[in-house]
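FORM 12-B: Structure-to-Sequence Request
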């Protein structure tokens, strides 16, 4: 039986949709139901693109690519995934990260140091963000090509392919390599597409809700079915 597997962050998981604890009310799951495919999600709300790449590597290291379509929505470039050696775990830092969010892993002083490093250095350069994320996505795309993984990839951050600023030759080379593997939501990202169609979006975390995911499922249904054919 064909299978759709979701990779990404809260948008692929369907965060803040009522009664969606397992991610099965998000658009990739709804498409799976429409076309008679199984569905599984590895989306992790709040994660960065390095984490999304690890989702892909981990899944296909343990599962066949046959009759499987990977749905990937790459996230914001300002998110950074770090490995905390003392806890042997990965964490994600972003603009909204504060020390209290890390208190379950590390003590407050160290948490403050990590957050300060992110704010003062890691997120201080759009050039660094673009280079790092493009390299991560390109590596994942090459991995999927080598393993015969069929995928439909979209992205949230328009800065990823902006060439007007922070785009020296080496960034443009990466953009030229990565962008052909991407599709868009009528030229934009999921959030902008939902706004253009007047779907309900939560105020604080900017998550499209059930009607948006139902509409999104109709938007992608034929393309997913064709990719699995």
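FORM 12-B RESPONSE
SEQUENCE OUT:
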């Amino acid at each position: 039986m064909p299978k759709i597997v979701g990779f990404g962050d809260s948008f692929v998981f369907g965060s803040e949709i009522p009664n969606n604890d397992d991610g099965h009310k998000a658009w990739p799951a709804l498409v799976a139901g429409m076309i008679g495919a199984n569905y599984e999600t590895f989306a992790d709300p709040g994660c960065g693109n390095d984490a999304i790449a690890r989702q892909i590597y981990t899944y296909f290291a343990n599962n066949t690519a046959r009759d499987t379509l990977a749905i990937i929505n790459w996230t914001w470039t300002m998110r950074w995934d770090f490995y905390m050696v003392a806890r042997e775990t990965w964490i994600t830092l972003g603009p909204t990260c504060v020390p209290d969010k890390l208190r379950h892993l590390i003590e407050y002083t160290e948490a403050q140091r990590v957050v300060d490093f992110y704010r003062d250095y890691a997120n201080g350069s759009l050039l660094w963000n673009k280079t790092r994320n493009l390299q991560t996505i390109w590596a994942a795309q090459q991995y999927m090509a080598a393993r015969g993984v069929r995928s439909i990839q979209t992205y949230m951050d328009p800065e990823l392919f902006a060439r007007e600023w922070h785009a020296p030759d080496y960034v443009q080379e990466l953009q030229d390599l990565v962008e052909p593997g991407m599709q868009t939501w009528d030229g934009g990202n999921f959030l902008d597409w939902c706004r253009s169609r007047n779907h309900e979006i939560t105020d604080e975390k900017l998550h499209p809700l059930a009607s948006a995911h139902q509409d999104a499922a109709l938007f992608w249904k034929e393309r997913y079915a064709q990719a699995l054919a």
